[in-house]
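Just curious: can you write whichever protein you like plus the matching structure tokens?

***
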Amino acid sequence: MTWLKDVIGTEKAIIAMCHLLPLPGDPSFQKEKGMEYVVEMARKDLRALQDGGVDAVMFSNEFSLPYLTEVKTETVAAMARIIGELKSDIQIPFGVNVLWDAKKSLDLAAATGAQFVREIFTGVYASDFGIWNTNVGETVRHQYRIGAENVKLLFNIVPEAAKYLADRDIENVAKSTVFNNRPDALCVSGLTAGTETDSQILKRVKDAVPETVVLANTGVRMQNLEQQLSIADGAVVGTTFKLDGKFENHVDLERVRAFMEKVKAFRQR
């Protein structure tokens, strides 16, 4: 049994993404509609995800494009306001992801009571955002300094839109990440949000670290969920739940219900 059962309530857990609209400071922030609109759209998506039966939810600033690797204070403040206003609506375990800043994700988790964070904690990458470096030792020490030691850490080891500068195979990355850092989970992604996670890479990671929770991080959909969940311990799902399966749309309750019905049937096998 993994920690997923204790924290989220089930094995083969589905963590749904609640993608927040652009926030103050983001290029696409809709100033004329203001933060009230962002909060209401987040509430609408949250309720659709919960009513559809997902196991947990993760709030992220998905539309803060292009992303920063050192996120500004105004972004974290806006996300904390949104989650604070939604607290009475949140009925399932939740996590946070401040793209792409591990310390800021932990700050937000500590402020809001989130139970897990997903981030790029380790590695150096050539990415769409330039040279992308990390400092996991400092990040974990920061976690303990701010009293967030019980927050589960989901390590994304196949970052979207980035590639390791070192030529390392994924098995070695998985093994050394687990040995050096004791992550609560490893997340395996496709190229971008909504892009299918390569099932072969997913299997290579799980085989390399069988005692560690491994999550399919992108592109799980009706057509492949059985294949992906037969390998992974769970999945992070965003785009699939949206109207017409398009990244830029809001959550479609009926798509969520249909997906979760299939997941629940898979669990009962």
Remarks:
- The mean pLDDT is 95.
- The CA atoms of residues 127 and 162 lie 4 Å apart.
- The chain has one domain: 3-267.
